[in-house]
Amino acid sequence: MQRVFEALASPVRRKILAYLAHAELSAGDIASRFEMSKPSISQHLSILENAGLVVSEKRGQFVFYRQVEDNLANTLAGFVQEVCPVGRPLRRESATLAGDRGKGGEG
Amino acid sequence: MQRVFEALASPVRRKILAYLAHAELSAGDIASRFEMSKPSISQHLSILENAGLVVSEKRGQFVFYRQVEDNLANTLAGFVQEVCPVGRPLRRESATLAGDRGKGGEG
DNA sequence: CCAATGATTAGGCAATTACCTAATTATATC
DNA sequence: GATATAATTAGGTAATTGCCTAATCATTGG
């Protein structure tokens, strides 16, 4: 949990997570989206991986990164439950999402 | 949002938020719960306040702090929506909370 | 006004973070 | 094996963070 919040404290790392929201990307793909050296991005990726927010898989020359879906949402949801006085906003959020069930799909 | 995540990166600050989940406390009340100098706690409190997560109110000699309830949950919920692939865990969370409605109470 | 209490501001220091370049490791291709 | 490409590791530096003590500001009460 500490590692998750440390990881999220960086704008670069949050942006990486956003990139990985919809697609798996190689380290180079990610680095090319930032004006920053590849080693720096590699470091950011390892911080995200140590936090359990992403996993990497080597295929050939490339290392692909993807999100570990459950960890981020679960960690934040758990934290909110613990620290928020009542969790009213989350409940409101819940109502909305609950209303969606049956329209979208669970997975 | 950057300030919120920066604020949450510190264990001390998260613990302060937890203390403020159920009660309003003075700066001294909070400081007494940590093995840390009052000025340091004061600094942590100002970081939380600048992030919009708490507000302070001076009454007599004392400065009382309390959570700004909506901001934390809303910020995190918004972030999860943006960055999580599908939001499945949040949906599951939702189902639970939705099931609670009618039993507990909305406020 | 003067002393006591609560809290913040100021100033300084150690540890950490974030970045860079250079070097290394691993894979693919010839 | 030699070369090119992808990625990480190593090493170094500037900026930031986190903590402390001392000093200051504000309020209460004799």
Describe this structure in words.
The structure is a homodimer of 107-residue chains. By secondary structure, chain A is α+β, with helices and mostly antiparallel strands. Chain A is 58% helix and 13% strand. The first copy, chain A, is built from six helices and three strands; from the N terminus they run ααβααββαα. Chain A has a three-stranded antiparallel β-sheet. In chain A, helix 1 runs antiparallel to helix 4. Chain A starts with a helix and ends in a 7-residue tail after the last helix. The C terminus of chain A is likely disordered. At the A-B interface, helix 1, helix 2, helix 5 and helix 6 of A face helix 1, helix 2, helix 5 and helix 6 of B. The structure holds a DNA duplex (30 and 30 nucleotides).
Helix percent band of chain A: 55-70%
Total number of helical segments of chain A? 6
User: Biggest interface and which pair forms it?
Assistant: A-B, 40 and 39 residues
Task: Point out poorly predicted stretches of chain A.
Answer: 101-107
Counting copies of identical and different chains, the oligomeric state is homodimer
Number of strands of chain A: 3
Mean pLDDT level of chain A: 86
Adjacency order of strands in the biggest sheet of chain A: 1-3-2
Structural class of the helices, strands and pairings of chain A? alpha+beta
Task: Describe the largest sheet of chain A.
Answer: 3 strands, antiparallel
Organism (chains A, B): Methylobacterium bullatum
GO molecular function (chains A, B): DNA binding; DNA-binding transcription factor activity
Protein name (chains A, B): HTH arsR-type domain-containing protein
Domain HTH arsR-type (chains A, B): 1-87
